[in-house]
Structures are given as C-alpha cells and as structure tokens.
Write a structure and sequence with these properties.
This protein is mainly alpha-helical and 350 residues long. It has helices spanning 13-45, 49-52, 54-74, 79-97, 103-121, 124-129, 134-145, 147-165, 168-186, 208-216, 219-248, 254-286, 290-311, 315-330, 333-343. Helix 12 runs antiparallel to helix 13 (290-311) and helix 13 (290-311) runs antiparallel to helix 14 (315-330). The longest helix has 33 residues, at 13-45. It is globular and about 60 Å long. The two termini are 20 Å apart.
Length: 350
C-alpha cells in the first residue's frame, strides 16, 4: 500500500493531472487540425474525398497498431519519459506535415503522428489511476477528458482560420509548436508505484502472456471496448468530415465552419464530460459499473440527434441537434475510462 493510502491522492497528483490534461488538449488539437484544413489539402493535391479520407485512416490504423507497444512499455518503464517522448514525436510529425510537398509525404507524417499519440494515450489514464484512489477516478478522468472538446475545437478553429487567411501548411506549424515545449514539462511529473492507490501490495509487471490470459476472461473489458470501438468508428468519421460538410454542403466558409464546430464542441463537450463525471460517480455508488450504463445511454440518445444534424437545412436546427448529440456523446468519457481502469490489474493497465 502506498504511504498516502488508497483514500488520498498521491503526491504530485494535481501537477500530473494538470500537465496530462494540457498535453491531452494539444493531442486532440493536432489530431483534428487536419479536419479544419482538409478542403484546402484536397484542392492542393487534387484529391477526391475517398483519397483525402486516407489521412484519417492511416493515422487511426497506425495508432491502433502502435498502442499495444506503448501499453507494454507503459507497464514497465517510467511513464513520464514515455509521455515526454511521445509528445515530442507527434508534435514534430505535426510540424512536418506542414512541409509535405506531396500527398504521400503528408500520409507518412500523419502516420508518425499516430505513433506518438499512441504512446501517450495508453499511458496517461494508467498513470492517473496510480495517483488517485478509486472513489475519485471517474471525476479525475472526466476532468482529464475535458481536454478532448477543447483540443478538438482548437484544431477545427485553428485549422480553418489559418488555412483561410494564410495556408494549410502554416496551420500544421502552429499546431505542432506547443507540444515541443510540453514534452520538457512532462519530465517533471511524479512517477507513482503501479497499483499504489488500490489498497494492496505493489506488484511487479506481469508477463505479457499472463496478462493476456487474465484479460481474455474479463467480460466487462471486452464489452466496454466493443462499445468504444463502435463509438470511435462513428464519431471519428463525423468529426473528421464535419467541417468539410459544413463548407461544401452547407455553404459556410472554412473559418466559419471551423469556429462554429469549435464552439459547439467546446460547449457541449465540456458540459457533457463534466456531467458524466458527476453522474457517473453517483451511479457507481448505487450499482456496480453504473457509470458504464450512463455511457451506453448517452450513445443511444446521441445517434438519432446526429442523424438529425446531418439532414437539417436550417443552421439553427443543425447546430442545436449537433450540440445535444455531442453533449450525450461526451457523457461517456470519464465513466468508460474509469470502468476499464478499475476492471484491469494495476500492473497491466497501460
């Protein structure tokens, strides 16, 4: 058991939460800045929509393949070094995207961005779970995930505005710069013992095969992951293409589309994420994995609202439906992550 005990946050917890949340915001800014500049990239390289979609596909496939490697390292090496290295890699790759003179070079840069983000994304929730006790994790992880709507909104807005007034190349330089500085800041975060906030003795990392065998029978993990996979398929495509849809199908300028998407994402995302943290904690106290039920209900509510947004011709109705859909979607972040973190062995979480 850690010296702080399972009932109190670990030393340096607030610092780590602040740094990781800030890094997460830059993470999503760099991920979605491509959505804000996509119409200009299509025009530069004479791309059809299906070819332009490869920028999102390549990023996600490389992210998926790299994540288990990042997770394996995250259970074995000091996580602050892994976070710092990952931030540096994806930030340099984002800046390199602005130097791309061909579509193939841009694809390679986005693939490397996926490698960097995978190393960070697998480690951060596990690190926070070792700094905060179980009773606080849904709220803490919800706060951590408030960076998603802020970062995504910044990506939409920065990408659209800079591409409209300067060039899409400059937008990538602007997006990559903050992460280079944050990589150095990440090195000062604490490195808590794995499992120190779970009330038992701190155990060494389990062999990969042993951890996978234990995971194979973990029904909650697989059900939750299946749901999150389906959600990512849906929301990832919508987020990637929505600024282009607004510009080409609804007549908005790139700047207006980016700012409008950004404003709706920030407002709905912040409210939904924070509400998910509070409600998820209350439901968890009433029934096992009550927060995960909230996640599922939010997704069910969001689906028809997102369809309504896509077919709405009135800008007011479009953005109202979009706001409500995003609010329901973002209820999911904190409760889902807390449920998965709590269901998996501390030495196999990353």
């Amino acid at each position: 058991m850690s010296a702080a005990g399972p009932e109190k946050a670990g030393r340096g917890a607030v610092l780590a939460l602040s740094v990781l949340t800030l890094v997460n915001g830059v993470n999503y800014l760099d991920r979605y800045i491509v959505a804000g500049v996509l119409p200009k990239v299509e025009a530069t390289f004479q791309l059809t929509h299906d070819r332009a979609g490869l920028l999102g596909t390549v990023f996600m496939v490389v992210y998926m393949v790299s994540s288990p490697i990042g997770g394996y390292l995250g259970d074995r090496v000091p996580r602050r070094y892994l976070v710092a290295g990952s931030v540096l890699v994806w930030s340099l790759a984002t800046a390199a995207s602005g130097l791309a003179g061909s579509f193939a070079a841009l694809l390679v840069a986005r693939a490397v961005t996926g490698i960097g983000e995978a190393g960070y994304g697998t480690v951060a929730p596990a690190l926070l779970s070792d700094l905060y006790p179980r009773v606080d994790r849904t709220r803490v992880l919800s706060f951590f995930y408030t960076a998603i709507p802020i970062g995504a909104a910044a990506g939409f807005a920065v990408g659209g505005a800079v591409a409209d007034h300067h060039s899409w190349n400059l937008a990538f330089f602007v997006g990559g710069a903050p992460g280079i500085a944050l990589a150095a800041v990440a090195l000062v975060m604490p490195e808590p013992p794995r499992g120190g906030m779970d009330g038992g003795p701190v155990a060494p990392a389990v062999p990969l095969a042993t951890g996978l065998r234990a995971l194979a029978g973990n029904r909650l993990f697989w059900v939750a992951t299946a749901g999150q996979t389906l959600m990512t398929f849906s929301i990832g495509g919508l987020a990637y293409w929505m600024p282009t849809f607004l510009e080409k199908e609804r007549g908005f300028s790139g700047t207006t589309a980016g700012i409008a998407m950004g404003a709706v994402t920030v407002g709905a995302g912040l409210l939904g994420t924070l509400a998910g943290g509070v409600l998820g904690d209350r439901l968890d106290r009433r029934r096992p994995n009550g927060g995960l039920v909230l996640s599922g209900l939010g997704l069910l509510v969001a689906a028809p609202l997102m369809v309504a947004a896509a077919f709405a011709r009135s800008p007011a109705l479009l953005f109202l439906a979009l706001f409500l859909a995003l609010f329901a979607l973002f209820l999911n972040n904190g409760p889902f992550s807390a449920a998965v973190v709590n269901a998996v062995s501390p030495t196999f979480r990353a």
